[in-house]
Each structure stands twice: as C-alpha cells, then as structure tokens.
Specification:
Helix content: 55-70%
Largest sheet: 2 strands, antiparallel
Structural class: mainly alpha
Distance between the termini: 112 Å
Order of helices and strands: HEEHEEHHHHH
Keywords: Coiled coil
InterPro entries: MCC
Organism: Brassica cretica (Mustard)
Strand order of the largest sheet: 1-2
Shape: rod-shaped
Strand content: 5-15%
Protein name: MATH domain-containing protein
Length: 193
C-alpha cells in the first residue's frame, strides 16, 4: 500500500466514517506488469472513476492521476514500513508540486532540493525518469530566465543612459535655439545709432 500526504486545496466529496474505515482497511492489491515484477496500484484500481476524496491524508485524485499516467511507477518500490512508504509518497508529491511552481517563485535552492527529493524517490524504487526530464527542462528554463533577466537589466541600464543623453541633448537644443533667436533678433533703431 502506498500512502501519500497532500495539502487539501478543496474538498469535493468525503466518505462517511463507515465507508472510510472499510476503504482504509482494504488489503493492498498487487498486479503483475511486464517481466513478472510486482507493482502497487491499489489506489489506482480502488478509486478509478470516483470523485476526489481524502484517504489517509492524501488527495486520492492526485495519486490516482499519477498512477494512471505512469502505471509502472511503483514496480520496483521496496519500502515495507508504512511510515517510509508515506514519506516516499510525500516526497514524490512535493517534488511534483515544486515542478508546478512558477519560475518567478522557484529559487535555485528549490531546484537543489528537488534534485535531492528525486534521488530519494528513485533510490526508494520509484520509476521517475519522466520527472527527471521535467526537472531538467525546468532547470533549463530557470537558466534561460536568469540570462533573460540579466539581458533585461542591461537593456534597462542602456535605455536609462540613452534617456539621459536625450535629456542632455534636449537641453542643448533649447540653449542653441535661444542663442539663435537672440542672433536673429533684428536690431532696433536705437541699437543702430
């Protein structure tokens, strides 16, 4: 059984106590996937097609979607201890949440921690090559963002410099126009005498 903990953003439906006890006591179902290896997919099978609900601290919809999209994710999962399984699932879900963050809100430390979490869940036996690719794409985007911010700052500095030059040039133009006006002013009768 894989137990996951997810922060609940919105509860769409809940089970009454009797249904919840039956659900949480249901035995873990295992199935064979290519090569005769076993995988844990009881959440996927038990909750397909049902509304989103919270079971043992995890939003079933999130976990179900992970198993739908990546059915072989837990084929090599080795943790037998319930607390370790829960921790692994928490790491996995936290990693996915991190990958969903806006680049603006994502720090380089977040990316380092995401690498650590990825290593942790991979070492626990999860097949997360797809997450590794997503993380690499995110790192590339973060690097491009950094380069873009540097270029943008340089452009702003140049623009400020050009605006200052324009302002200085405007002042020179006004001064030259005033001198030209003084030169063009016709002499009066008194000035000529």
């Amino acid at each position: 059984m894989i137990v996951a903990e997810v922060d609940v953003l919105e509860v769409i439906a809940t089970l009454d106590e009797s249904e919840e006890s039956e659900e949480s006591c249901r035995p873990v179902k295992k199935s064979k996937h290519g090569g005769g290896e076993e995988s844990i997919d009881s959440l996927k099978e038990a909750h397909l097609g049902k509304e989103t609900m919270d079971v043992n601290g995890f939003q079933v919809e999130s976990v179900r979607r992970i198993f739908e999209m990546h059915p072989d994710i837990a084929v090599d999962f080795r943790a037998k201890n319930q607390h370790l399984r829960k921790a692994c699932m928490s790491f996995l879900l936290s990693l996915i949440e991190t990958l969903c963050m806006s680049l603006k809100d994502l720090s380089n430390e977040d990316l380092v921690e995401a690498d650590v979490a990825l290593t942790y869940v991979r070492d626990a036996g999860f097949k997360v090559d797809w997450l590794e690719k997503k993380l690499e794409i995110l790192k590339e985007k973060k690097e491009k963002e950094k380069c873009s911010l540097i270029r943008l700052e340089e452009m702003k500095d140049k623009l400020l410099e050009l605006k200052q030059k324009c302002s200085d040039l405007d002042a020179l133009v006004e001064k030259e126009e005033a001198e030209l006006l003084a030169i063009r002013t016709p002499s009066s009768f008194v000035d000529v005498l």
